[in-house]
Amino acid sequence: MLRPTLVRLAHTYKPMMRFPDRKAPKEPHVPRPHPGAPQEIAENFDHYKKLHDSGPHFDPEKLVKYGGAESTTQGAPVAAEETSTIFDLPSRFWDTPALRWSPAEMEAINSGGSSMLDA
């Protein structure tokens, strides 16, 4: 055998991908600001974290309902720039080919799909 072949055969295969050692001790996770966070959040991260943890997304009772279809059914007034349904908007928003249903589609829905077996 030639020398380069012997050298090539002498080396064992070493994969390029390395996996972390699962048995190694893990350091505890310490929350810190993202490197791209705004400066005021990075400087006052503890205050921001406290505000975030006390936010309404952790307590459903603190959530505030706002305008839309739900508020009109409860009797809440709708502001002048708001609409209660999509059909209050100009027709270009709701009269589109994607929202129009053909008679065959309506029949399939009303029959639970059994009308599609006839075709």
TrEMBL record:
Q: Which UniProt keyword terms apply here?
A: Mitochondrion
What's one GO-annotated cellular component?
mitochondrion
The Gene Ontology biological process annotation of the record reads: 2-oxoglutarate metabolic process
Keyword Mitochondrion in record: yes
Q: Which residues form the signal peptide?
A: none
Annotated region (Disordered), positions in chain? 17-40
Q: Where in the cell is it found?
A: Mitochondrion
Q: What spans are recorded as compositionally biased (Basic and acidic residues)?
A: 19-30
Cite a single Pfam family from the UniProt record: Kgd4-YMR31
- Subcellular location, principal: mitochondrion
- What InterPro entries does its record include? Kgd4/YMR-31
Q: Does the keyword Mitochondrion apply?
A: yes
**What family name appears in the similarity comment?**
Belongs to the alpha-ketoglutarate dehydrogenase component 4 family.
What's the protein here called?
A: Uncharacterized protein
Q: Which organism is it from?
A: Malassezia brasiliensis
State the taxonomy lineage: Eukaryota, Fungi, Dikarya, Basidiomycota, Ustilaginomycotina
